[in-house]
Amino acid sequence: MPVFNQSRSRVIQILFGVVFIIIAAQLVNLQVFSKKYKLQAENNAIYRKVIYPDRGIIFDRKKRSLLENSIMFDLVVTPSEARGIDTLALCNLLEIDTAEYKKRMRDIIFKNTSVRPSVFEPLLSQELYARLSENIYKFPGFELSERSVRSYPLHIGANFLGYTAEVNPAFLAKHKDEGYEMGDYTGMTGLERTYEKVLMGQRGIKRYIKDNRSRIQGSYENGLFDTAAIAGKNLYLSLDAQLQALGEKLMTNKVGSIVAIDPKTGGILCMVSAPSYDPNYLTGSERSKHFNKLYKDPRLPLLNRAIYTTYSPGSTFKTVVGIIGLSEGVINERFSVVCNGAFWGCGNGRPKCLDKGTFNLTTAIAHSDNTYFATVYKRILDQPRYGGADSALKVFNTYAYTFGLGHKLGIDLPGEQPGNLPVSSYYRKIFGKNWNSCNVISNAIGQGEVSTTVLQLANVMATIANKGWYYTPHMVDSIEGNEFDDLLVRFKEKHFTDREIPDSVYDAVQNGMQGVMEYGTGAAAQVPGIVVCGKTGTVQNYYHGVAQKDHAFFGAFAPRNNPKIAIAVLCENAGFGAQSAAPIASLMIEQYLKDSIPEPDRKQKVEEIAKLNLIPARMRAEMNRLDSIKMKKEEEEQNRQNIQEQILDSTSAETTMVTQPIVEPTQKPQSPQELPDNHPKSWMANLITTEHKKKKITDINA
Fold it and tell me: How far is Cα 593 from Cα 76, in angstroms, rounded to an integer?
């Protein structure tokens, strides 16, 4: 054979060899390495059903369940198996249009492929479930899948319990290594979010054999590869459900918060954020609609005001100023100040004071004298030994920080805010490097740049009750089993204020706080038979630069000699703390310590406060505006429907007259409905009716 032909033959052999290798490699890739076709093949033969576990239950301190699990159903679809179905019939059952159907299918395929089951319609109502269960056999590729969802038998605690929702692509991307899949539900807020790993449990999987028509034939390999769902662990809270229910009742038609703490453990006894909502509102098929309504409410009911919103603490902060003043030695218990109506130590007569007279520490706390605490604060910052206000303010903040102010306490809830203790660098920017105590004197009475959460104020009360120490406030007291005990270790650590502060300092402040309740600003809120130490607060505030009605604050603990409850109450724009916040705290203390409110007059007080509407004026105005818009839209929609129905009725009557057939005198007249389908007059009647209706409806819509 010529050399030239041998060369051509070799080239052809090489080409065939390369092609063979490529084909063989692709076959190996498709059969061994490629997951795409393997997944499709498996899904053609095996149906993988997810078994969702029951989430853990949450109990209060007396083992009463705050939430439970109930069964609802999702409509689940595998898009690759749902081809050729009667789409219009399914849309009619679901009360959606075909455009929405196509959009959902596109989204499902994009997020979860066409061969894996995905939720098409979540949390079906009982009516919709009944309709679908009767007709589901008509829609291959669709099935009804059980899901355990939350229910709330006591209807309380929405803001700290939180809610669950289906994971979305953004969540999956953020938590890609945590085992979530499309269709899973996760805790979004509150305890549901913080203790998600404890509550979620572990999903189970059941595999079934399918035939070539996607009909289930039985268990795959007799269930050898199935996994059982494992329920989540239960949580046991320090919370008292009865106290929580009372707090939510008392805060009806008010904006604010209540936090109560067990001083001996740091356990939260109640946490009320007002306005709140029934937690059942965010479960079931109407969840999205209800969430949208809550989101648009100008009172912001989704906000947990106990930990997320910060306020100037007002006169409740005077207790801390008094303790620091005594500890620094700038005053003693006998030190007294004369108030003639205002503080003149800075030459401008500010701040003002309501009661004139001579006050020592005890009476100054009892009557909330501004002049006394402005004097103490000024003395602290003006101490020569610190060489200036910069260093003196740092010392003051160091004390305050140990009371849990100016930083997050670390409660087991998401969204906690740190509050604020202003620092010298901030004041240097405003007043220059030579700023002095008179520039910031409003801090002395809890105004100015000092801010706290209601939780922090309750913790200050617990710290004073304990005479210098506290545990980190927390909701969860224990977790079922011992697998997650490490999550609670940090709540067992005791935090101390300056250990050099003697008990006598706390005794002096407690004397003043007891005086508040016996003869001072909180005397009207005494609790029968219980020695309470309290402090009222009235806080000036502004909204977009416009002065608003004062906030009402009150902090307390009881009983004095063996404190079992420390509490803080805030009512936004409700005026004096003694008039609104203090009576609420008084009833809460009585309920917890006596386990009831036995006296008829006190029960009557509960009802009176519950009916009292203290919603801020600006919020009421916005609520009225939104209600007016809603009513106008509903009225316009109703009028449009009425006119459309009238025109359709008149059109029907006109069409009947136009299409009446001409008959012989001896012939019985036929209505359009009685004419045969192939009758020319029947065809003409239908045409006229359809076109006439279309024209009328178009005119109305225009």
Answer: 51
The burial of 504, by beta-carbon neighbours within 10 Å (0-12 exposed, 13-18 middle, 19 or more buried), is given as exposed
Tell me whether residue 314 is in a domain: yes
Asked, for residue 4, whether it belongs to a domain, the answer is no
CATH code of the domain in which 215 resides? 3.90.1310.10
Q: What is the pLDDT of residue 656?
A: 56
Pairing of strands 565-571, 256-261: antiparallel
Which helix (H) or strand (E) covers residue 379, if one does?
Answer: helix 370-381
- Parallel, antiparallel, or unpaired: how do β-strands 357-359 and 204-210 relate? unpaired
Q: Are residues 105 and 252 in the same domain?
A: no
Residues 223 and 337 in one domain: no
Residue 42 within any structural domain of the chain: no
- Does pLDDT of 259 surpass 80? yes
Same domain, 405 and 259: yes
Q: Residue 467: which residues within 8 A CB-CB, separation 6 or more?
A: 503, 506, 507
Average pLDDT, the chain: 86
Q: Using CA atoms, how far apart are residues 10 and 637, in angstroms rounded to an integer?
A: 83
User: Of the residues 173, 206, 237, which one is the last residue of a structural domain?
Assistant: 237
Specify whether 262 is located in the same domain as 392. yes
* Average pLDDT of span 451-470: 97
Q: Looking at the domain assignment, is residue 340 inside a domain? A: yes
Read off the tokens for 57. 């239950």
Contacts of 665 (CB under 8 A, 6+ apart): none
**What CATH number should be reported for the domain holding residue 604?**
3.40.710.10
Range of 201's domain? Answer: 48-64+154-237
Confidence bin at 42 (pLDDT 50/70/90): low
- CA dist 606 and 583 (Å) reads 9
Q: Are residues 113 and 256 in the same domain?
A: no
Range among 344-353, 438-447, 654-663 rated most confident: 438-447
For residue 239, report the phi and psi dihedrals to the nearest 5 degrees.
Answer: -70, 145
Which range is most confident: 216-220, 395-399, 544-548, 628-632?
395-399
Other residues' Cβ atoms within 10 Å of the Cβ of residue 296: 9
pLDDT tens-digit map of 160-187? 999 998 888 888 888 888 888 887 889 9
User: Are residues 496 and 513 both part of a single domain?
Assistant: yes
Q: How many domains does the chain have?
A: 3
Residues 75 and 108 in one domain: yes
CB 656 within 8 A of CB 675: no
Q: Per-residue pLDDT tens for 407-424?
A: 999 999 999 999 999 999
Q: How many CA atoms lie within 13 A of 495 on its CB side?
A: 22
- Give residue-wise pLDDT tens across range 577-592: 888 999 999 999 999 9
645-688, pLDDT tens digit by residue? 788 777 666 555 554 554 444 444 444 444 444 444 444 444 44
Q: Which two tokens stand for residue 658?
A: 């136009």
Mark whether 265 and 382 lie in a shared domain: yes
Q: Would the pLDDT of 245 be above 60? A: yes
Is residue 346 within 8 A of residue 371, CB to CB? The reply is: no
Q: Give the residue from 203, 237, 271 where a domain finishes.
A: 237
